[in-house]
Each structure stands twice: as structure tokens, then as C-alpha cells.
Amino acid sequence: xxxxxxxxxxxxxxxxxxxxxxxxxxxxxxxxxxxxxxxxxxxxxxxxxxxxxxxxxxxxxxxxxxxxxxxxxxxxxxxxxxxxxxxxxxxxxxxxxxxxxxxxxxxxxxxxxxxxxxxxxxxxxxxxxxxxxxxxxxxxxxxxxxx
Length: 147
What we know:
Elements: H1 4-11, E1 17-18, H2 24-34, E2 38-43, E3 46-52, H3 53-61, H4 72-75, H5 89-99, E4 103-107, E5 113-118, H6 119-142
Parallel strand pairs: 1-2
Antiparallel strand pairs: 2-3, 4-5
């Protein structure tokens, strides 16, 4: 059975993060620069929260907060669903579906950040896996395409 570690092995373990005392403006600029939808908020390499595009819309723009003075810690999502590298991909997908989230930080036993997966990563992995299966079935049914 495929695990989160299988995705991290393909995409790498680099995660974009930000400190809780950073401003929303700093976070938004970093997200735009990297073309990403979230930043993991870390405190001494441990997950303290997550800051997403949804947080910007709901807790900053709609609340009419000044992004230049508002701290990430004041508007981040504090209750963060996380998974472990050995988490089954079906379980990770279920957590994302049930909680209606698109990003899942990957942590070790000490809750130290060691990766991040997105719903896009899960879909890409599943798609790649299905393509390989289709290829093998095609070869089984019709013979090898290599002459």
C-alpha cells in the first residue's frame, strides 16, 4: 500500500514555512513569489499552525485587517491536521476530504515538520500509478510494444 513517504520521495521534503511573528504581508508576498497556496507556521521546527489563502480571505480581507501590521499568529489556522510519513494515502485523502482541506503537513514523532503534501500531490501520484498499471495491462494483453 502506498504511503505519504512515497509522495515525499518523488517531490522532495522541502516545505515553505513562516514564523508566527511574521506579518501577513510578508506571508502573502512569499506565497505569491513561490506560487503556493499555504505556508506552514513553525515555532522551532514544530508545526504551530498553517496559513492559507482561505485565511487571508476570511481573517484578513473580510475582517479588514491591515496585512502590514497583522501577525500571522493572529490569523493562522491553529488546529492543523497532520500526518506521518508512514500514513496510507487513502487515509490522507480521507482526512483532506472530510476536513475540506488541501494541504497536510507531514511530521515526525516529535511533531517536527518533515514534509507537506497537497491534494494535487495525491491526485498526481494516483494518476501516475494508474498510468503504470494501464501500461502493464496493455503489454499483458497485446504484448510488448518494443520490437
